[in-house]
Structure formats: structure tokens, C-alpha cells
Amino acid sequence: MRDVSFGELARLTSRFANVLRTLGVQRGERVFVLTGRIPELYVAVLGGLKAGCVVSPLFSAFGPEPIATRLNIGEGAVLVTTDGLYARKVAKLRDTLPTLRHVLVRTPRARRPDWPARRISPR
């Protein structure tokens, strides 16, 4: 478990909002978050809201098809997830998600210097 101060949360959420802007994500576009209850969940939700995006959490217990259905109905432009959840629940269905332009993946702390970690390229 990791404590995050309000100041650090403000800095991280602003940083994430800037990442979204740099990727060309516009106000009103949809950002979906598929993670467990980790600090990056809150950073992605609050950062997405700072960027003016519509943010929707996805329950990590959903199977691949319900996740794909929600991303398609919601016209998700961005998915924030972990490498394990991406591999198990999204990777095989990636080609069925036409509006999904960016997948931002949180990797385990041992393999990353800081958030945000890596981006999976568009199709």
C-alpha cells in the first residue's frame, strides 16, 4: 500500500491530464479505466476529469466480452489498464474496438520508474 498526499495527487492528476492532451484526446471524449483499486485508478479518473473527458470505470471482474461491449457502446477513445488485465481481457478483442485510439498500461512498479508507464500503439 502507498500513501499519496493531496499535493502529490494534484501533481499526478495534472500530469495525466497533460498526457491525454498530448495524445490529442479532446474534451468530452471517453476514457475507460480497467484497474483494481490502485493509486493509478484515482489518478486516471481525476486526471481524465481535469482534461474534460467523460470517465467510466470498468469492473475488473468483467470478462472480455462485457468489457468490449461497454467500450463500444461508450465509444471509448482511451483505456487505462494494467498489463495483466490487458493481456487477459482486452488484447484478443482489440481489433473489435474501432473507437479505441489509445491504451495506457500500468506496469508493475519493479519494471517502471514512474506513472504513466507505456502505451500500446494503435492498431
Description:
By secondary structure, the chain is an alpha/beta fold. Helix content is 38%, strand content 20%. The chain has four helices and five strands. Strands 2-1-3-4-5 form a five-stranded mixed beta sheet, sandwiched between helices. Helix 1 crosses helix 2. The longest helix is centred in the N-terminal third of the chain and has 17 residues. The mean pLDDT is 89.
Proportion of residues in β-strands: 15-25%
DSSP summary, beta strand count: 5
Count up the helices.
4
Largest sheet, order of strands side by side?
Answer: 2-1-3-4-5
Q: How much helicity do the residues have?
A: 25-40%
Give the CA-CA distance, first to last residue: 35 Å
The biggest sheet amounts to: 5 strands, mixed
Short description:
By secondary structure, the chain is of the alpha/beta class. It is built from four helices and five strands; from the N terminus they run H-E-H-E-H-E-H-E-E. Helix 1 (6-22) packs across helix 2 (39-50).
